Amino acid sequence: MHTPLSFVHRFEPGSSEATLLVLHGTGGDENDLIGLARELAPTAPLLSPRGKVLENGAPRFFRRLAPGVFDLEDLRTQAADLARFVQGAAQQYGLDRDQIYALGYSNGANMAAALLLLHPEILAGGVLLRAMMPLEPQPLPHLKGRSVFLAAGRQDPLIPPGSVETLAQRLRQAGADLELRWQPGGHSLYPAELEAARRWLEAHL
């Protein structure tokens, strides 16, 4: 008997060993990034949960107190809950637990960063599109052998470049192999960086 999984989610089977954990942005749901995930990783199984926190009816993965100001207690609670979900889903769907990579956008990318920092055993790495530093982990995790692709916009009104640099610095200090790619644009995603993400995934998956 499987324990029922605690997140509403969508699972798409695939033929590759590595799985993509697909994490939507604010107001998205489990269907939101499936098309993009398929484009970036055509053969990977896709595990796409819906965030449990509602902000004016818009699903998110954790609460914020104001734009860019996160409820850190809620972030820790939700990250632990998501980590348990991923482990349960890996068992239920027969996924290789050592080869789960995140694909997150905005709020989902911040949650992926939080998983790497708080529950490093869950992810082998990931593609973080428009992430910022979610919280300062004490102590830093050991991320040697983990790989991260971080894509940021220089003119992003929601994410201060300094916070992106801090996240990149912490991940590197923790031992992760990190590629940071800056776009001249804002919070939207651009074809060139998605192509770079696709190539990165092709090399890592």
TrEMBL record:
Its EC number is 3.1.-.-. It comes from the Bacteria. The keyword Hydrolase applies. Gene3D superfamilies: alpha/beta hydrolase. Keywords: Hydrolase. It is an enzyme of class 3 (hydrolase). One of its GO terms (molecular function) is hydrolase activity. Residues 18-204 form the Phospholipase/carboxylesterase/thioesterase domain. InterPro entries: AB_hydrolase_fold, LYPA1-2/EST-like, PLipase/COase/thioEstase. Belongs to the AB hydrolase superfamily. AB hydrolase 2 family. PANTHER family: LYSOPHOSPHOLIPASE-LIKE PROTEIN 1 (PTHR10655:SF17), LYSOPHOSPHOLIPASE-RELATED (PTHR10655). This is Putative hydrolase MhqD. The gene is mhqD.
